[in-house]
Design goal:
Blueprint lengths: L1 E5 L3 H12 L4 E5 L7 H5 L3 E2 L3 H6 L3 E4 L4 H14 L5 E4 L5 H12 L4 E4 L2 E2 L1 H7 L3 E5 L2 H12 L4 E6 L3 H29 L4 H9 L28 H18 L4 H15 L12 H7 L7 H11 L1
Parallel strand pairs: 1-2, 1-4, 2-3, 4-5, 5-6, 8-9
Antiparallel strand pairs: 7-8
Length: 307
Amino acid sequence: MRVGFIGLGTMGAAMALNARKKGGHELTVHDLREGAAAPHLEAGCRWADSPEIVGRDAEIVLTSLPGPREVEAVGEGLVKGLKAGTAWFDLSTNSPTVARRLHEGFAAKGIAFLDAPVSGGPRGAKSGQLAIWVGGDRAVYDKYKAVLDSIGDQVRYIGPVGAGSVAKLVHNAAGYAIHCAVAEVFTMGVKAGVEPLALWSAIRQGSLGRKRTFDRMADQFLQGRFEPPDFALALAYKDVTLATELAREYGVPMRLVTLAHAEMAEAMARGWSALDSRSFLQLQTERAQVAIKVPADAIKKVIEKEG
């Protein structure tokens, strides 16, 4: 397939090479630094001096850029080169609002725009072990999925345009928030006298360590089912209370854990002490005014399919 690729940075360079070497696609590449394309030209790719030129002969264009501003700037050139019936998949971590705006503008010219952010980092980009989350027209996704498969091993359709970007932002924000919370309690543990490596080794093999963090959401939160409890809120509240007391004893600030403790206290005041320990998460769904209730059998099918 004739593929255009714009953005040969840390991630883009490796993805473009995989599209050429593993996928066998005909690639035309562009970057602000022409020297970045040296290994791609050696692999048989062609160089283009601008995004417009990249789009002229491409069936599909992939972009890997720093952010929304750069994506929109490249779009100004691409829209002049791409023909009706072609597609642009943006692999950047982008704003869902920008993605939807680009979709509307390009759709008016018969060009499909899909947001397709990736997750896996530089090593994943090189090895091809990348998750790619796509938002946009499902038929267009199906038509060009083989190209995405040449650069990632976990390509999936998420929903309408913008959905891929939403999934990526949720994933990244959650990951950093979780690390922030873990850093809080970890520093408390070290200051309380536990050797860092021994502490890390212990908590990573605890009951939660044997199951991926997001998998735990499926047990109660995703189903909206908090009884019968796996572990009662009252007991969890006691545990977190002890942790906050220990932190105060050693003078360790724990803002995020203190916030979680306050959330649990509010849930206890509502009479939820005998419900599952994660029942306090309902406070957030109330504030966000969203209802989350996924059937258990649907969750089971996803786990059986994806592992």
